[in-house]
Amino acid sequence: MKKSLLATLVLSALFAVTACDQAKKDNTAEVKDAATQTTQDVNQNMADSKDTVSEKAGEMKDAAIDKANEIKDSAAEKAGEIKDAAMEKATEMKNSAEEKAAEMKDAAMEKANEMKDAAEAKATEMREAASQKAADAVSEQNKEAQDTSK
């Protein structure tokens, strides 16, 4: 009996060890399959993420290009407005300068005419005074000549 009990114990231990080894082999295959599946899922998710990132980058690039074009167009429009305003201001300044020059010319001509008239009046006055003095001198000489002849 002892031998049969001992044999039973040994066989039980042997079956237990064999069963554990078998379970380990089954578990290893399952873990290997699960790891393979997880790796495939991770690779698929990475590929999806890469595609999503590429799409978003493309959208951001397009948005940046659109915004840059808007800014460029706005700047060009603003530059055109500034150019037009500058041209208008230059024209106004030119017209104002021409008007001022015409006014100054008219004022100078008027002043020259006034000076000419004043010079003519002074010359006439001086001529008359000279004539008067000459007439007075002649008259005085005539008087002296008459006084001396008497």
TrEMBL record:
Span list, region Disordered: 32-150
Residue ranges of the Late embryogenesis abundant protein ECP63-like domain?
50-92
Q: Which domain of life is it from?
A: Bacteria
Keywords for this protein = Signal
* Signal peptide limits: 1-19
Composition bias (Basic and acidic residues) maps to: 48-130, 141-150
Pfam families with a match to the protein in the record: LEA_4
Residue ranges, compositional bias (Polar residues): 35-47
InterPro entries per the UniProt record, alphabetical: ECP63-like_dom
* Name of protein: Late embryogenesis abundant protein ECP63-like domain-containing protein
